[in-house]
Amino acid sequence: MNFFKKAPTVKEQQRQNDRELRKAGRDLERDKVALEREEKKLEMEIKKNAKEGNNEGCKILAKQLVQLRKQKTRIYSANSKISSVQIHNKAMGANIAIAGAMGTTAKTMGNINKVMNPHQIAKDMEAFKQANAKMDMTDELISETLDDIMDESGDEQETEGIVNQVLDEIGIEISGKMADAPSVSRNKIASTADADKELMAQLAKLKS
Questions:
Q1: What pLDDT is stored for residue 204 in this prediction?
Q2: Rounded to whole angstroms, how far apart are CA atoms 93 and 11?
Q3: Cβ contacts of 113 within 8 Å, gap of 6 or more
Q4: CA-to-CA distance for 18 and 24, rounded, in angstroms?
């Protein structure tokens, strides 16, 4: 004898219950059919005794018929009860399945809550926010420092060359525009130069 036999699961027990209930229903159905056959025989016997005028025999058979019909009623009632228990057994199995699903869901939700701890998430988000702000500040500081270093170590001549190039480009543009200016301006400049020469000549005469 195995004292360590594994206990059946709820689902296995439910299936066993269902098998036993179906077997009991089949047994009762066979008994009912047998009683119906016996009922017909009794009815025929009662009719036969009545025709023969055997009143005493009719009474005895009639009592038997009453008992038989009562037994049939019990079988109908038992069958109804078995059907009810079968439905209850199936409903219980469904409820157990639902309960198991809810248990699994609750466990899953618990695992999710462990992984997605709202307090920890909020803490991590705040840490990310601070780290990101610090990184931005650090990046800005490094950029400014690099700019200062580059400015200090830059070649002044190269810088001056770039400035002169820009000024030359502007000068070329200005020269181009000046070339299109009216000749009056050029005449004015020429007359000013002649006046200066004349003044210098007079000064030379005075000295001699």
A1: 65
A2: 7
A3: none
A4: 10
- Residue 93 to residue 176: CA distance in whole angstroms: 100
Contact between 14 and 89 (Cβ < 8 Å): yes
Q: Are 75 and 28 in contact (CB under 8 A)?
A: yes
CA distance 184 to 137: 61
Cα distance between residue 74 and residue 86, in whole Å: 18
Structure-block tokens of residue 24: 């009991």
Closest CA to 159 of 169, 151, 148: 151
Q: Please, are residues 28 and 82 in contact by the beta-carbon 8 Å criterion?
A: yes
Q: How far is the first Cα of the chain from the last one, in angstroms, to the nearest whole number? A: 156
Reported as a single tens digit per residue, the pLDDT across 159-207 is 566 656 666 666 654 454 544 545 444 454 455 666 666 766 766 666 5
Q: Which residue has the tokens 């057994």?
A: 89
The first and second tokens of residue 97, run together, are 């399945």
Rounded to an integer, what distance in angstroms lies between the CA atom of residue 176 and that of residue 170?
A: 10
The answer on pLDDT for 122 being more than 60 is yes
Q: Is the dihedral of CA 158, 160, 163, 165 positive or negative?
A: negative
| Whether the predicted model's global pTM rises above the 0.70 cut | no
Q: How far is CA 100 from CA 2, 10, 92, 120, in A?
A: 30, 11, 12, 30
- pLDDT tens per residue, range 50-106: 888 888 888 888 899 899 999 999 999 998 888 888 888 888 878 877 888 888 888
Q: Is the pLDDT of residue 113 over 70?
A: yes
